[in-house]
Amino acid sequence: MLQTAFKAARASGEILKCYFNNECCIYKKGDFDLVTDADFESEKKAIDIISHNFPDHGFLCEECGTIGNQESEYKWIIDALDGTINFTRNIPLFSVSIALLKNDLPLISVIYNPITGDFYHAEKERGAYLNEKKLHISNATNLSSSILVSDLTKYKDYHDEFFKMMSSLSKDVLGIRLTQSTSINLAFVAEGRYDAYIKNKINYYDVIGGALLCEEAGGIAIDFSGDRISKNSKGIIVSNSSLYNIILHKIKL
């Protein structure tokens, strides 16, 4: 299954590279969201490859929604262009994100950066890797030496809450980054480049693959209620346990 995910991610990434820095039709997906031909084509390629190998599995995809066998215990979560807005501005911060769930719990995660050629991947209870290098999350224990990363949600009703949350942290941290590429952000947390990821409005399926990567790198992915993330989670903190407690205390003040 992991090798199929690799194959699908690489093929999707090749399509993205062909479109990147070239003309690409851009459409409004909502008031504050975009989609491109590259999204559609790369997603179709990933679905075709995976469904050829696993025709009885279900899919939940960013663009085409739920397809395949939704009664299957296996469900593939595909965002074949995570970071579309960056992509449309020729900013090389985007990825192909593919995760496999078994009974709605993460089993495999692959995040592919087609610009650098880097594969981040994890399997449940088998560790997390960047290509062949084993990953370990940051061991930071205080905010003053920590860089946090986040994404501004497309849901405008949550923006005031978001900026209040960031304001409560900004005076104590080394830095805060907003890059609008969730999977790359979580991959960088797993790698230890960033020390924590925080977001106040999430879609479970957008973060579950990256969360598995971070957990397998020794981190935790917990919601604002202190529970493991689920479809009912409102917000998420991904970090080591020491920083999680500090961040949660700060944003609840």
UniProtKB/TrEMBL annotation:
UniProt cross-references to Gene3D superfamilies, sorted A to Z: 3.40.190.80, Fructose-1,6-Bisphosphatase, subunit A, domain 1
GO biological process, one term: inositol metabolic process
GO molecular function: fructose 1,6-bisphosphate 1-phosphatase activity; inositol monophosphate 1-phosphatase activity; metal ion binding
Record flagged with keyword Hydrolase: yes
Binding locations of Mg(2+): E62, D79, L81, D82, D206
Entry cofactors: Mg(2+)
Cross-referenced SUPFAM superfamilies: Carbohydrate phosphatase
Keywords: Carbohydrate metabolism, Hydrolase, Magnesium, Metal-binding
Pfam families from the UniProt entry: Inositol_P
Stored InterPro entries: IMPase (IPR033942), Inositol_monophosphatase-like (IPR000760)
Enzyme nomenclature, EC number: 3.1.3.25
Catalysed transformations (reactions): a myo-inositol phosphate + H2O = myo-inositol + phosphate; beta-D-fructose 1,6-bisphosphate + H2O = beta-D-fructose 6-phosphate + phosphate
Assigned protein family: Belongs to the inositol monophosphatase superfamily. FBPase class 4 family.
PANTHER family according to UniProt: INOSITOL MONOPHOSPHATASE, INOSITOL-1-MONOPHOSPHATASE-RELATED
Name used for this protein in its record: Inositol-1-monophosphatase
